Amino acid sequence: MTDNGPPRRSIRSFVLRAGRITPAQERALTEAWPRYGIDPPVSGPQDSLPATLDLAAAFGRRAPVVVEIGFGNGENLLALAAADPARDFLGIEVHRAGVGHLLLRAEEAGLGNLRVMRHDAVEVFERHVAPDSLDAVLVLFPDPWHKKRHHKRRLVQPGFVALLASRLRIGGRLQLATDWEPYARQMLEVLSAEPSLRNLATAADTPGDAATEPGFVPRPAWRALTRFERRGHRLGHGVWDLSFERVAAPAGRPISPEA
User: Fold this and answer.
1) What is the CATH number of the domain that holds 142?
2) Which residues, in sequence order, are CB contacts of 162 under 8 Å at separation 6+?
3) The one catalytic residue among 143, 179, 205, 209
4) 230 found inside a domain
5) pTM of the model
6) Which residues face 92 on adjacent strands?
7) Cα–Cα distance measured from residue 80 to residue 111, given in angstroms and rounded to the nearest whole number
């Protein structure tokens, strides 16, 4: 698994932790990676631009592609790929244990429409994902970075949302969820301000989970209830879901994850 490219930005939305990894997950990281893993493509020495992912080559076919950013241990992504063989699913995660867990389960299920990248999602979208190429992007329960001084680390920022929107095809979906209400409100504000996105929540929506005000949608039926979310329900935590559709090209302003 390579790590190439220009110098990385200083502010990240994640912290790498040395979590526990089982021998089976460690084995999957080595043995299942050739089948399911995608390394960031490397440009040639004469090419000043980063190389773009060839998703059709990676999956061995041309099909709609859904990307999940920060998939945790992959419960939702695995369920989606198993239930929808007509679409291809790419998961991006930085934590080894979660990647190993998903690789192990994908190998057991024999899934052919699932691929994984162990890399910073911001860098992947900036350098390697072509514009207008994705059917959907999922950002489910990103780290809320509760303390105010850490809010700059939150993944959902105007620049990154503009970047995600530019990688969606017209009609493509951006789906988000969080169990932290202040972050949910920030997400709604940021996404609503992006001119190339349209909120799919309607006045007819029945509030679902913690979606008790306009702008949020009920929990989509496709979104698996993860162990993390089930625990939150037991503790009385709310959950806020958002669903936005790309309707126009970005409005000519610079697309930067630091915006």
Assistant:
1) 3.40.50.150
2) 194, 196, 250, 253, 255, 259
3) 143
4) yes
5) 0.85
6) 69, 117
7) 11
